[in-house]
Amino acid sequence: MSQEKLDTYFQDWQENEALAEEMIPLLGRLYRKYNVVPSLYGRSLINRSVIRILKNHRYVKKVEGVELSVRDTLPMVKAMTELELGPAHIDIGKLGVAFKRSEQDDIRAFLETELADIVGRHADTGMGGEPKDVVLYGFGRIGRLLARILIEKAGGGNLLRLRAIVVRGGGDDLEKRASLLRRDSVHGPFAGTIRVDHENEAIIANGNYIQIIHADSPQDIDYTAYGIDNALVVDNTGKWRDEEGLSQHLASKGAAKVLLTAPGKGDVKNIVHGINHDDIADDDRVISAASCTTNAIVPILKAVNDEFGIVHGHVETVHAYTNDQNLIDNYHKGDRRGRSAALNMVLTETGAAKAVAKALPELSGKLSGNAIRVPTPDVSMAILNLTLDKATDREALNEYLRDMALHSRMQKQIDYVDSPEVVSSDFVGNRHAGIIDAQATIADDRQVVLYAWYDNEFGYSCQVVRILQHMSNVRFVYLPRETR
Question: Glyceraldehyde 3-phosphate dehydrogenase NAD(P) binding domain spans which residues (predicted)?
Fold first, then answer.
C-alpha cells in the first residue's frame, strides 16, 4: 500500500475527531436547554469523549451493516438545535441510518417529519411537574452506583434530585464516604469533582449538594429538617424486604414512597422496568426493583415467550461474588457461603427463577433455577435452557433477539453482542439489564440454550433509576418510535 493511501487513513481519522469535537457542545445544548437525550443505537452521547463518540458510530456498522460516521450525524445534530424540540430521547443513529436509506437530501425536512411529535414544543415540559427529591438509604455497592447515575443525569429534565444519603453510626467518616464515591475498583474513577463540606456534613458532587445523614433506623430521621419533602427513599440495605419492615421509612417525616433494591417479599410488587412497570399505581408506596438476575432474564424470557412460547426451562446463573460472602473461610449462616469467595466456585440458591412469575405470571411454575458464585467482582451470566412451543434454529433465534435488542420497546433492557472474543470484563458498565451472547446460542428444534451477560451492579442500578423515573412521573417520548 502506498504511503499516500496510508496517510489518507490517518487524515480521515483526524477529520472525524474534529467533527466529533464540534458535535460535543451541540449535544450538550440539546440536553441542557431542550431536555433532549441523544443516543446512538442505545449508546448515550451525553458527556462522552471524542473517542467514545467515534466508537459508538462504529458500533452501528456492527449491528446494522450500514456505515454511519460523524459526517452523517453532525448535520443532523445541528438541525435539531434549530427545531425548538420538546423533551425526548432521540436515537440519532437510527435516524441517521433511516435518512441514508431514504435517499432524501433535505435533513431538516426529514427531521421535521420524523420528530413531528416534538418539533416546536420546547415550552412543553411534558414530564410530570416539579423535581423529585431522592434519598439513598444505605451507601454500599448499589447505593454508590445509584449516586453516580443520578448525579450524571442531573439536569436535562431528569427531575430526580439526589438530596441525601443515610448511613449508619456517626463520627468523622465523610472523607471515607466521599473517597468510596470518588474511586471504585471495578467501575473506575468518578466522572467529575467531589468536595466535602465538613461543617454541614455534606458531599458536593458535580455541584449536587448531598446531605449525609447518620441514623440507625428510619424513625430517627426528619428529612424536612434538611429541606427534603415528599421524597423517594431507596433502601439499599436489604434489611427489610416486606411491606411492614419497609413501611418504617414512611414514618420518617418528609418521605413519600420507598423503593427496595432487592427482591420484595409478601405483597410487595416486584418491578422489572420495561416489563411490568406500568403495574405501579399512584397510591403504591412500597415497591421492589426485584434482583439483578431477575432483571437480566425477565426481558429475554418475555421476548422468547412472546415469539416462540416457553413450555419449561432451567436458569443457571454464574454470578460474581457479593459482599454477603466471606473473603476468607469463616462462619456464615447460609450454606456454603462461609467459604472464601475469592478462592472458590460456590454452589448456592437463587430465587430468580421463581421471582420471574411476579413480573411474568404466564411463566409461573415453568422455571427452575440455581446459582454458582465465582471469584470475579462484577458481571455475571445467566444460562437459559428452554423448551419451546415452536421450533426454531440458531440463526432465526439470534436474528429475532437482535431485532428485539435494537428495535423493540425493550431495547433498554436487552443488548446483543456477536463476537467470539468477549469476556465478562467487557460488560462492566453496560447499562442494559441483560446482554445476549449470540455466539453461544444453541438451538435444536424446540430445545434452546441462551447465554446472557449482565453487569449485576451497574446494569441493575440503571434499571432502578428507570423505576424511580416512572414513580416520579418522568415521561420521555422515545424517537424514532418502535413498533414491536
Answer: 132-292
